[in-house]
Amino acid sequence: MCFEDSAESWDGLDSLGGFDTAERKRMWRRAYLARRCARMAIGSSDVARGPSGDSLTRNLESIIGPFLRVDDNGECAVAIYEPFASEPDVEPLIRVLCAAPGVTVLVPTTRSAHSSSELPFKELVAIPDDQGDQEGRGGDAERPTNRIPLRAVVVPALCLSATGERLGRGAGWYDRVLASLMAVPGAQDSEPPVLIGVCFDDELVDGGLLPTDRHDQKIDMVVTERRVVHC
């Protein structure tokens, strides 16, 4: 759903002290959904494609690359979202990761529940080519994912802060997943995965502005088409 885009959609979001956290989140979410809709309406949803998309991919590669350490079996994994039309396009990065030796690419599963011994991701079995068609990759969507060391999790956001706060679409899926990662036996070996949030550069705000709850999970790094921020 798109909301009417206007200056009032987001002006004054940093001065909503009279509202509770849930209401402030709804206001922020409505404002930034309006920004996304406006971006699409004027045809700029491709800001993360073309030159800007190349910059986003380069920034993500520079961050993720050092974490791609394989285990004794020559394996490691990266979990990454499959973008909606209005989200920053990470499909070029997915293609890069799929070509990397020993790297298993995981995407969110749509199952509402998952085994306590299994990550809520499945192995990617097809990747989009440059024309948006699906190419077979030979992966196994039923392969257990909990035994592969997870090095990085790339998550989408409507808005991110420079200190790691994240505003999603409101379902809470990623908050639950990120909170459960450490509780999955064998999901990682000695170190937890790095948590990387992706948004457009005009969706990155100063620390302390986003409304948060106790259960909200902070991310370690923010990547946009213009910069990388270590939180």
Tell me about this structure.
The protein is α/β, with parallel strands linked by helices. It has a single domain (45-230), classed as Rossmann fold. Helices cover 23% and strands 19% of the residues. It has helices spanning 21-41, 50-64, 91-99, 173-180; strands at 76-80, 103-108, 121-123, 126-128, 134-136, 150-156, 159-161, 166-167, 194-198, 204-205, 221-223, 228-230. The strands form three sheets. Strands 3-2-1-6-9-11-12 form a seven-stranded mixed beta sheet, covered by helices on one side. A three-stranded mixed beta sheet has the order 8-7-10. The longest helix has 21 residues, at 21-41. The protein starts with 20 loop residues before the first helix and ends with a strand.
Characterize this entry briefly.
This protein has four helices and twelve strands; from the N terminus they run ααβαβββββββαββββ.
Write the layout of secondary structure elements.
Layout: H1 21-41, H2 50-64, E1 76-80, H3 91-99, E2 103-108, E3 121-123, E4 126-128, E5 134-136, E6 150-156, E7 159-161, E8 166-167, H4 173-180, E9 194-198, E10 204-205, E11 221-223, E12 228-230
